[in-house]
Write a structure and sequence with these properties.
The complex is a heterodimer of chains A (about 250) and B (about 200). With about 250 residues, chain A is mainly alpha-helical. Chain A has helices spanning about 5-10, 20-25, 35-50, 60-75, 75-90, 100-120, 130-140, 145-150, 160-185, 190-195, 200, 240-245. Chain B is mainly α and about 200 residues long. Helices cover about 65% and strands about 0% of the residues of chain B. Chain B is built from 8 helices and no strands. The longest helix of chain B has 24 residues, at about 80-100. Classes of the chains: A mainly alpha (about 250), B mainly alpha (about 200). Chains A and B meet through helix 3, helix 4 and helix 5 of A and helix 2, helix 3, helix 5 and helix 8 of B.
Chain lengths: ~250, ~200
């Protein structure tokens, strides 16, 4: 029987529970019950003693060793790092097809070969709308030339001429609407508002330093194109107050 | 490619030594954490419970690991190797002590902290048993003491002890048997059952 098994047999059993075979195997170690108990006590106490004897070295010992280690490996740190990087990327222990550097090279080649196909979406023939837009840009940059040349040249196709004509009409309408708006804005002038409210006129609305103390309150005012919002307290206009009271 | 930091807690002692040879500090920290305490205990038992001396020995042993890690043969068990080194350091210290003190077995009698004739019959507490055990260990001769300590306090197997001490397994078994019987006889006073 192994030494360890003998120890466990002694630790885990009482002498009177041992069989004759077990006693025979222990005969060399203990011939009687007293010797058995002696061994049992020693082995039992050793387990507790092992835990109690847990030694912890001083911190200074470790610090000194750390300094020693740093001094020993300080110079070769960079080399080790580079070696480690090289070994990681192109490890000679692995087969060729499993090396990360080979992976990267393969991915690069695949990307290089597939990129032209992925981004090659230029059409062989221009669609009609693109041609029209191109023509439109030319007309916008050189309008007089186009107008002069238009009667001389035959339209390439019917669609192009129709779209171009629609665009010209649309631009003309936009210009008309813009002119109407400017006209409308100019039609409501400050002088008219001032004439409607002479009490407020005493304060110059166009004055830079004008403040709206119980008078006209300008909204977003543009000096070039005046868009003015007029407001005044009801107390200064009894007629309006009468109208309000009569209405509600 | 390694993207995560290596965890050394799962490494074997031998793998840690390989990492130390590459200059990896955390591998050294892990190895120190595993063996510094047990080796300090070993030196304490073998060097007359001289704490300062034992600390110095632990430092010197790990300094050897840092400076000359190539001395370790990776084909061997690190545990047996490191205890072999520790045992050789103790033997050298015994020789020095023998020269200094002129004692026969290298043990300085001033380091014997325990009175072997002390009457301990009236105290059966664990602490007292521990002290008596240390006392009895000190009275063991060196070869039996180191075998017993490596087996029961450092947890080495008989085969490992044989490698550390470079003797046959049968010899280790014989030494263990003798040491156990000796200690049991010395410590029998502590068992109340035996005092009936």
């Amino acid at each position: 029987m192994m030494e360890k098994e003998l120890e466990q047999l002694i630790i885990n059993n009482e002498y009177y529970t041992l069989s004759t075979e077990e006693k025979a195997s222990l005969a060399e170690w203990c011939a009687n019950e007293d010797e058995f108990l002696q061994l049992k006590q020693v082995f039992g106490q050793l387990e507790g003693l092992h835990a109690a004897n847990a030694f912890v070295p001083k911190r200074e010992t470790k610090q000194s060793l750390d300094e020693l280690f740093a001094a020993k490996h300080q110079k070769s740190n960079r080399v080790i790092w580079l070696n480690g990087l090289g070994a990681a990327l192109y490890s000679k222990e692995k087969p060729l097809y499993q090396r990360p550097l080979v992976y990267a090279a393969a991915i690069g080649i695949i990307a290089l070969l597939t990129t032209p196909f992925l981004f090659d979406n230029t059409p062989t023939t221009k669609p009609a709308l693109a041609e029209v837009q191109e023509e439109q840009q030319k007309t916008s940059t050189e309008p007089t030339v186009k107008q002069q040349e238009a009667p001389k040249e035959e339209p390439k196709n019917f669609i192009q001429s129709e779209v171009q004509r629609d665009i010209v009409f649309a631009e003309a309408e936009i210009v008309d609407v813009a002119n109407d708006e400017v006209y409308a804005m100019e039609s409501v002038s400050v002088s008219e508002i001032a004439a409607a409210e002479p009490a407020v006129l005493s304060r110059s609305m166009m004055d830079e330093n004008w403040t709206h103390v119980d008078g006209l309150h300008p909204a977003e005012t543009d000096k070039d194109k005046v868009e003015t919002t007029a407001s005044a307290p009801v107390s200064s206009h009894p007629s309006v107050l009468d109208l309000l009271t009569a209405t509600f | 490619m390694k993207l995560l930091r290596t965890t050394y807690t799962n490494f074997t002692d031998e793998k840690l030594m390989e990492a130390i040879m590459r200059g990896e500090k955390r591998a050294f920290d892990e190895l120190y954490q595993r063996y510094a305490g047990p080796l300090l205990g070993y030196f304490m038992r073998m060097l007359w419970r001289d704490r300062e001396k034992s600390e110095d020995f632990v430092h010197d042993l790990f300094a050897k690991i840092v400076n000359k890690p190539e001395y370790f043969d990776p084909t061997r068990s690190f545990k047996t190797w490191v205890y072999s080194v520790a045992n050789n350091m103790c033997k050298n210290e015994y020789k020095k002590a023998e020269i200094r003190k002129g004692t026969k077995n290298g043990l300085d009698t001033h380091f014997s902290l325990f009175d072997t004739t002390a009457n301990v019959m009236n105290e059966v507490q664990d602490r007292q048993f521990s002290e008596a055990f240390q006392q009895s260990m000190e009275t063991l001769d060196q070869k039996h003491k180191e075998a017993f300590a490596l087996r029961h306090l450092d947890g080495l197997s008989i085969l490992e002890i044989a490698e550390v001490l470079q003797v046959a397994e049968g010899t280790i078994k014989s030494r263990l048997f003798y040491a156990t019987k000796y200690l049991a006889e010395k410590l029998k006073e502590f068992d109340p059952q035996l005092n009936r």
